[in-house]
Design brief:
about 30% helix, 16 helices, about 25% strand, chromatin binding, eight-stranded mixed beta sheet, Neutral Protease, domain 2
């Protein structure tokens, strides 16, 4: 009936709130039906920074104890506590995890009264015939009513605006992992969901938005009361509950007026900026529904832009709370990419995220939802802005992860006890997205769509929990490939490899000899069944070589080149015709069949490549290769030659360097103009 960590089960909860913007206060009451063993005489709930006015159990006043100073208020012991003061990060982390674990057990302890005012024994209600616990005589139902208030909250709910010259007064939830317990008493756990009903009253002229479906809104005696309620079979964990209230401007999306609504605070050109900043949302919904073969989970989807939230985006079911700093007008086009990226990611989080209908089974599985959400976001942005934009973003993300990943960083999946926020960091999200992309590269785009469709098909009956093990089982089922062993290092290990490569053109044997060093020993041992692609560009042909990953540190590949060594005078003139001055000079001086070489050109690895080539090969790569990643690699390679010039007089090198820099600009402009 109850798992090892469960003390109780909540059958349903009703919350009534009255918001006072002037006093920055929440007040109201909450009613819970709690299923608990009859032998237990104490009911434990979560309630942090809440002032409890009264508590009753089955209509009888009950004694209670509210812990005001939680273990999180004092994490490390100080010197006057007869402990040596701790200041290193490791000990602080250990103490913080221990304090969080204690605080998560609950703060409000309610004693069940032994009898009612008449002296009759107080007995719980028995579960009905078709209800949970119907056949267990040790289980009873208690009805708990708690009156409470919160003034000037330090977290959970943020009151903003209202000062002279500022935006109007409004409030919103702050998106903390365990923020629900910060603004009403509840049972706040990720793996616990139950029916919720929320009624919020605000002064007339304000709007209330909630992540629960809206049932009704009434105006009475200068108050607006909005009621929100869970749909049957689609219950939310209370920590997935989000709310915003204020005098928002309402703007239905022009492309999907019945399905998407945008809100923002009144200010100069508010509607124009709101419409311009959200113009990609409806198109993104169409692309997502087509890609995932699944409709938007909850409608209408609402986006509200508020003042100075702790994070730019907080996505909850059917509601996204975003920062008003993301709004911009047509004169600030440089803001387009970042704003669209964040709004699209919030939209994708309706399908994939810790608050979506497809949820992580444990905190260790959070990486999977983070990665799926970010990867799908990148695919949608690829549709909006082109393949060159997408590849450049992947190249930047790979460089960031390779620099940040190290021995002190925890793997994506690890069993060490952690605060939940440690599973949601920016680094883990960016690395997880690259891992999902590696999965797509190995099984194919069509098979990954099948996997996503298979996972989402189960959410039509209600929320579905997914684990890392079940995900790879779905991959095997939909693609027929077992790739878990190929990816084990990036999921269960740390560190990215550095591939250091060099080459030799053997004229006597007409061969190209390539040597490569793989620096990460742990990766070599776990990924030895994988392979690395080397792309060779010659004067007459371009082809790929596949080198198997071995346990040895060094990999060597020797093969005959396929282009002729010497060209006739007529062939040289034809090659120089129409070329840039510096390219024509290279053709004349470097009569070689080999133009340039690339290691892992499709980014099938999360790696850093250090390829040694001559300057003319980098120039060839920059000028001839239309792949934006190849061009970025060429720019990096040329920079090394500019820093350490080795041939020619200083004046000649400087003149050539300036010419190459102008060539870089022209090539990148042409790439952007021709991007698909």
């Amino acid at each position: 009936m109850f798992s090892a960590h469960e003390k109780l089960k909540v059958r349903n909860q009703k919350v009534n709130l009255d918001i006072d913007f002037a006093q920055k206060q929440l007040s109201g009451n909450t009613q819970l039906e709690i299923l608990q063993k009859k032998i237990d005489q104490v009911i434990t709930l979560h309630a942090r920074q809440v002032h409890v006015k009264s508590v009753s159990v089955n209509g009888v006043a009950a004694r209670y104890h509210l812990v005001h100073n939680t273990p999180l208020d004092k994490i490390c012991p100080s010197a006057h506590d007869n402990h040596r003061e701790t200041r290193d990060l490791l000990n602080f982390t250990i103490s913080y995890r221990r304090a969080y674990e204690k605080a998560d057990k609950g703060e409000l302890y309610i004693e069940i009264p032994a009898s009612d005012p008449s002296g009759n024994p107080l007995v719980p209600k028995e579960p009905g015939e078709n209800e949970t616990g119907a056949n267990d005589t040790s289980i009873g139902i208690w009805k708990v009513d708690i009156k409470f208030s919160i003034k000037n909250p330090r977290g959970g709910v943020i009151f903003a605006g209202g000062l002279p010259g500022d935006v109007p007064s409004h409030c919103y939830t702050d998106g903390q992992i365990d923020s629900a317990r910060m603004w009403f008493p509840c049972w706040d756990r990720l793996d616990v969901s139950y029916p919720l009903e929320v009624r919020v009253s605000v002064p007339d002229g304000n709007i209330v938005l909630c992540s629960l479906p809206e049932v009704e809104t009434r105006v009475k005696k200068g108050k607006v009361r909005s009621t929100f309620m869970s749909q049957e079979g689609f219950n939310l964990p209370v920590r997935s509950l989000a709310m915003a209230a204020g005098p928002f401007i309402r703007l239905p999306d022009p492309g999907m007026s019945q399905r998407i609504v945008h809100y923002c605070l009144p200010h100069v050109n508010a509607e124009q900026r709101l419409a311009f900043s959200t113009q990609y949302v409806s198109r993104s919904v169409e692309l997502l529904e087509q890609m995932l073969d699944s409709r938007l989970p909850k409608e209408p989807y609402k986006q509200v832009f508020v003042s100075s939230p702790p994070q730019d985006i907080d996505s909850r079911p059917s509601l996204t709370i975003a920062s008003s700093s993301l709004l911009f007008d047509p004169s600030n086009l440089f803001r387009t990419f970042e704003t669209v990226r964040k709004l699209v990611h919030a939209l994708v989080s309706q399908w994939f995220g810790i608050h979506s209908w497809l949820r992580p089974d444990t905190w260790q599985d959070t990486w999977l939802l983070l990665g799926l959400g970010r990867h799908v976001t990148n695919l949608i942005l690829k549709k909006h802005f082109g393949n060159a934009f997408y590849l450049h973003h992947i190249w930047e993300e790979t460089a960031y992860v390779c620099q940040a990943d190290g021995a002190t960083v925890k793997p994506l999946f690890h069993d060490a006890p952690s605060h939940p926020s440690e599973y949601l960091g920016e680094f883990k999200a960016r690395k997880a997205a690259l891992v999902i992309r590696l999965i797509e590269k190995r099984i194919g785009e069509a098979n990954l769509k099948k996997v996503l469709g298979h996972l989402l098909s189960k959410t039509c009956r209600g929320p579905e929990y997914i684990s890392t093990k079940r995900f790879f089982k779905a991959v095997r089922k939909c693609s027929g490939q077992d790739i878990e062993s190929h990816l084990s290092h990036w999921i269960f290990g740390t560190g990215c490899t550095t591939m250091t490569a060099n080459f030799n053109l053997n004229k006597k044997r007409n061969q190209i000899e390539i040597a490569m060093r793989v620096s990460n020993e742990q990766m070599r041992s776990k990924c030895k069944l994988d392979s690395v692609t080397i792309r060779v560009h010659e004067t007459e042909v371009t082809y790929d070589r596949t080198v198997k990953m071995e346990a040895d540190e060094f990999l060597v590949d020797e093969f005959a080149h396929q282009s002729k060594w010497k060209k006739t005078k007529k062939e040289k003139e034809a090659e120089r015709e129409g070329e840039d001055e510096i390219i024509a000079e290279i053709v004349e001086r470097n009569d070689t069949p080999l133009l340039w070489i690339r290691v892992d050109p499709e980014l099938h690895w999360i790696r850093k490549v250090e390829m040694t080539q001559t300057d003319y090969m980098w120039i060839y790569q920059l000028y001839k290769d239309r792949d934006v990643i190849a061009q970025m690699e060429a720019i990096d390679g040329l920079c090394k030659h500019f820093i350490k010039p080795t041939v020619g007089p200083d004046g000649e090198i400087q003149q050539r360097s300036e010419y190459i820099k102008s060539l870089v600009v022209r090539v990148l402009v042409a790439t952007l103009e021709n991007s698909q």
